[in-house]
Each structure stands twice: as structure tokens, then as C-alpha cells.
Amino acid sequence: MNDGTGAAGPLPPASRVAVAGASGLIGTALVRSLRADGHEVVRLVRREPRARDEARWDPERREVDTGALAGCAAVVNLAGAGVAGRRWTDSYKATIRSSRVSGTETLAEAVAALDAPPRVFVNGSAIGFYGETGDRVVDESASAGEGFLPGVCEEWEGAAAPAREAGIRTVFARTGLVVARGGGAWGPLFPLFKAGLGGRLGNGRQYWSFISLHDEVAALRHLIDTPGLSGPVNLTAPEPATNREVTAAMGRVLHRPTLFTVPSPALRLVLGEVSGDVLGSTRAVPSRLLESGFTFAFPTVEDAVRAALR
Predict the structure, then answer these.
(1) 0.85 exceeded by pTM
(2) How much is the pLDDT for 104?
(3) Of 179, 246, 237, 173, whose CA–CA distance to 209 is shortest?
(4) CA nearest to 277, candidates 143, 148, 96
(5) Is residue 80 part of a domain?
(6) pLDDT of the residue at 99
(7) What is the predicted pLDDT for the residue at 1?
(8) Residue 144 resides in a domain
(9) In terms of Cα–Cα distance, which of 306, 146, 179, 164 is closest to 232?
(10) pLDDT of res. 86
(11) Which regions in the chain score pLDDT beneath 70?
């Protein structure tokens, strides 16, 4: 069995790249970055295509326009239902899982069946893989945690097996909290803090493994371009910050007081099971990213917050 490490180098100029989840926060920024460097991007959409750069796929039916994947040097899958922003009912938990697992299986099987498969398959994942770690530092060598999100992440990554077994270099981008104003889990914090209503969540000692949107996109490009880099790679800044430190940094950058504290019971009452993501602590570090030569432009939480406001 081929281990899928692949030996091909960086993308040649004007390469063709397919991106699923291209309309999301990270996908939109990645597409912009690829196009700025002259690459041709095919955006996979779940509706009827409306533009020449779009192609149809339907993960629930395990259907994808394989013609659109032909000739692609890289396929990037960032698709998945949002984790934050709504309560985790049994129905929505099933949606979170299926949107990731079915989508990955669909794309992995499709690229594996191509006569000329892509040189790399980059699949989304998350530091939710590690679950609650407290103040214990974890890198890619750590095993999966316990609970709903770790279970989803394990299945999500496992669904890419067809691509890896076909000899395609397969990388799992275990992304942390992306610091950006335009969306994601961090987006709603900016108006809250600007209004002077920001503050510590729970005891404030929980670690948030974050990454600026700029570094997230640069890291994804690094995963695409770095030969031999396969398997899980943490996309997080090198210095995870506690919620207390995040609160202080947001207050300093926005010049606002941070006097409020949201008690843990109140968060659990309002958010339900998803409060575990907010109150939980995951202290993940990007060992493999750093070892492979990646350099962060915004390594600290204050750097990342300032970058998001530019």
C-alpha cells in the first residue's frame, strides 16, 4: 500500500486547483490567494453552477463532477457545517458529522479514481480532535480525545483513506480558532468588545489555540506546496493563549474595557453542549508546521487581532 506521502514539489505556475467549501471564511481567502498567484481555481458548489469557475457536487448523494477534477494538481476540501453559532441538537450533530464525513469520502473516492490524480489532497480537520487537554500541550503525535468532536474528527480524517491508499499525498489541516472579523467563531467577538461588552468567559484559564486568517491561508498553501508533508498538521499559532489573555489583548487593541465576566453556568444554559468548545481548553501547538519550515506572520494573539482589523 502506498503511504500517500508523495514526492511532487510545489505547484507549477498556473496550476488547476479544486476547492470545496470555497464560499466559507477560509475558502474565500484561499481562493483569492491562489488566483492572485495565477492559479486556476475550480469552486465546487452544491447548487447549479452559475459561473464558469464553478462545478457541481452533492456529498449527500456521493456525486461530484469528475470532469472538473481532471487536470487538477491539488484538491482542497474545507466543506462542513458550522460548529459554533447554534445549539447542538441530535439532528444538527448528525449534520455536523455527515457534512464532513460524506463530503470527504465523496472527494477522496473521486480523486482516487482519476486516471491522472492530483499530486495532493488537503482535507480540513480541527484541533477538536484532541478534545479537552487542560494546560497539557499537545501536538500531532497526541491521540484523539473523548467526546463528540474528537469522534467526528477521527471519522473525518479516516474518510480520506481512498485518496491516501491511491498514493495521493494526503494532508489533514487541523485548524484552530481563526482570528477574523468576517466570520468563524471569532467574528462575533469583535462587535461585542467594540461595544465594551467583552470579558472573560468562565474562569478564563482555558487555552484557545488560535491562528490569524492570513497565517491560516499561508499554512494551507504551505501544505499544498511542501513535498513529503502528509498526515495531520496543526494549523495553530505557536503560542496558544488563555481566554484571560485573549480578553486582555482584545481590550488593548480595541481600546475598550473588559470588565464583564460570563459565568460558566450561564454559558451552558444558553449554548448547551457547544459551550464545551467555549469553556474547554485545547493547548495545541504546530510542531509539524514549524519543523517543515513554515514562518508565522502573526504569532501572538495580539498580532492576530491587529491583523484582523487591517
Answers:
(1) yes
(2) 98
(3) 237
(4) 148
(5) yes
(6) 94
(7) 36
(8) yes
(9) 164
(10) 76
(11) 1-8, 85, 263-279
Domain-embedded: residue 300: no
DSSP string, the chain: ---------SPPTT-EEEEESTTSHHHHHHHHHHHHTT-EEEEEESS---STTEEEEEGGGTEE-HHHHTT-SEEEE-----SSSS---HHHHHHHHHHHHHHHHHHHHHHHT-SS--SEEEEEEEGGGG---TT-EE-TTSPP-SSHHHHHHHHHHHTTHHHHHTT-EEEEEEE-EEE-SSSTTTTTHHHHHHTT--EEETTS--EE-EEEHHHHHHHHHHHHH-TT--EEEEES-SS-EEHHHHHHHHHHHHT----EEE-HHHHHHHHGGGHHHHH---EE--HHHHHTT---SS-SHHHHHHHHT-
pLDDT for the residue 2: 43
Q: Identify the burial level of 239 via C-beta atoms within 10 angstroms of its C-beta, where 0-12 means exposed, 13-18 middle and 19 or more buried.
A: middle
Q: Which domain holds residue 73?
A: 16-178+211-236+289-294
Contacts of 77 (CB under 8 A, 6+ apart): 20, 21, 103, 104, 107, 121, 122, 123, 124
Q: Work out how many domains the chain is built from and give that number.
A: 1
CATH code of 50's domain: 3.40.50.720
